[in-house]
Fold:
Amino acid sequence: MEQKYEAVIGLEIHAELQTRSKMFCACPADYAHAESPNTHICPICTGQPGTLPVVNRAALEQGIQVALALHCTIPPLNIFARKNYYYPDLPKGYQISQYEMPLAVNGWVEVPVGKEGTLQRIRIRRVHLEEDTAKLFHQGDRSLIDFNRAGVPLLEIVSEPDMHSVDAVLAYAMHIRNVLRYLGVNSGDMQKGVLRFEANISVRPAGSQELRTRTEIKNLNSFRALTRATAYEIRRQIAIYESGGQVLQETLGWDEEHEVTLSQRSKEHAHDYRYFPEPDLPPLQIEAAWVEALRAALPELPEARRQRFIEAYGLPVAEARILTAEKSLADYFEAVLPQTQASPREVSSWMIGEFLRHLNERQIEVEAVPFPPQALAELLNLVAQRTITMATAKEVLREMFESGAMPQVIVEARGLAQIADEATLMPLIEQVLQENPQVVESYLNGKESVFQWLMGQVARATRGKADPQLTRQLLQSRLDALRRSRL
Ligand SMILES: [Zn+2]
Structure:
C-alpha cells in the first residue's frame, strides 16, 4: 500500500548554542549547571518593561559558522522580529526571533540514506537566531517557573520538504547534530533538550508533484521520537486517503507512551504571530569580511574528515563514514593511530567491530569509555607482537570496558599471554590427536576439512591462548609425519 504514496517531509531543528552568555543579556547561558532555579536571570531575560536587549556577538558568530557549514548564503542585512504570542514561559508576550530577513538562507547538505547509504541532497531554506523560553514545572495544582533558560540563544534550522522517508529524516537529523558537534556549538545531548525537532509531513500519490495538506508534529526530543512519530503520521495520513477522507491541517503532539500523534490545534486556531521588526534592536549589517574570516576559521567538518580518512588511511568509504559520524569517535580513532603498530585498517576494523559493539551493548557514548585511546593502542600492540591472540584480545577488551584497567595489567594478572613455544604446544597437539583417532583417520584418508576442527581443539585446550600460526605449523607437520609413516 505504501508504494502508492510518497511522503513529503520537512524538518525544523532548534539547537541551543553553547555561548557563555544569553542571546540578549549578560546572564550565564549554561542553565543546566545553575545552582538553583531563577539564579541566571536579570530584568532583560525576565521581560521587565523598559529593558533593552543587546545582541550576543558570539551567538551570531556560532550561527554564521553553522550556516556556512550548511552551505548557506549570509545576506548582508539581518533583522530581528517580534513573534507575538502569550504563554506563561514567555512573560514579555513575544519572542525575539527572525522572520523576513533571517541570518542565512539557501543552504544544502548531502546525507547517506538507508542501508545502502545513497547520498541525498537536502536543501536548507533558512537558519535564524532566536531566544529560548523559560521552563515550566507542574506540581499538583501549582505551576512553577524557572527563568534560567529564558533568553538562551537558539538556532533554528529549517529544511525544504526534501525528505521522502523515515530513513532520510533520520540521516538528515543525525547529520545536523554531527555538524553542530563538530563545530562545538551544541553538545547534542538530546536528553537535556539542547536539540529539538519539528516535522512537517504530508503524503501524496507516488510520482505526483502536488503538495497536499500537511501536519506539523511539535517537540520531538529524541531520534526515537522523531522516527516513530514520522512513521506513525505517514501511516495515519495514508489510511485517511485510503478510506476516502481528507487530512486536516493541524499541529500535532507525539504521545510517547501510546505511540500516537494527537491533535493540539487545528488551522482555525493556528497562531497569527503578527511578526514585526523588533524596534529595540537595529538592523544588523553583516560584513562580508567578517563572514569570510569565520569561514576561514571553520574546523574540519564531517565530509572533509571522511574524505581525508579515505585518502590518508586507505579506509573503505563505509568505514570512513562510520568513524566520522561522531566527532568523538573520529577523535578517538586518530588518537589511537600514532601509538600503535597496528595499521589504520586494523585499528578501524577493531573500532567498528568490537569497540562499537561494546558501546552499543552498554548504551554509552565514546566520552564514557573507561580507558584512554592509549590503552586500545597497547591492546592492538599486544596482538601485533603476538603476545596475545585475537581471541584473547577480545576478552581483554571486554574486561577493559568493565574495569578500565590497562591491557598489560589484565594479561599479566590473568595469565593470558599467548602460548607461542613449541615445547608447550607440541604435547597438547599430541594429546588432541590421540584423543580423536577417527578424526585423524579421516584426515589421513583425504578429508582435509577436519584440519580446522583440530585447530579448534588445540585452541580449546589452551583457552584461546595458542598462537594460531605456530599451532597450524606444528599440527601440519605432525599430520604430515603421520601420513608419511603410513606410506
Ligand atoms: Zn538576563
